[in-house]
Amino acid sequence: MTPVIDGLQYANWSERIFRQMRAGGVDAVHVTITYHENFRETVLNIEAWNRWFEQFPDLIFQGFTADDITLAQQTGRTAIFFGAQNPSCIEDDIGLVEVLHRLGLRFMQLTYNNQSLLATGCYEDGDTGLTRMGREVVAEMNRVGLVVDMSHSGERSTLEAIAHSTRPIAITHANPHDWHAALRNKSDRVLRALSDSGGMLGFSLYPHHLHGGGACTLAKFCDMIARAADSYGIANLGIGSDLCQDQPDSIVEWMRRGRWTKSIDYGEGSAAAPGFPPMPNWFETNADFPNIASGLKASGFNDADVAALMGGNWARFFADSFGPTT
Question: Is the full-model pTM beyond 0.90?
Answer without folding.
Answer: yes
